Amino acid sequence: MPGLCVTALIGAAGLVAVLRLWPANDQTFLRHDLPDLSADYLHLSEHGPHHTHAVFIDTLHRRWPKAA
Question: pLDDT digits over 1-45, tens only?
């Protein structure tokens, strides 16, 4: 029973932290650029140098992009 209470308190603390720390205006789509890629790279030829799409981390977007 004590283990269950400790686990519940840790979960509640995590929930409170997320609700307080996560930005309220977090955008799903973000306009950004990828200066490390050459201009003829397929991703840039499809989307342009400054492009907007859903934010995700992958091999092209290794870090959270900064707005362009």
Answer: 899 999 999 999 999 999 998 877 777 787 877 777 777 888 777
**Scanning the structure block, which residue is given the tokens 């209470």?**
5
**Residues 6 or more apart whose Cβ sits within 8 Å of residue 43:** 34, 37, 60
Beta-carbon contacts of 63 under 8 Å, excluding residues fewer than 6 positions away, are 57
Domain boundaries, the chain: 25-68
Report whether 64 contacts 40 (CB < 8 A): no
- Do the strands 29-33 and 50-54 form a parallel or antiparallel pair, or are they unpaired? antiparallel
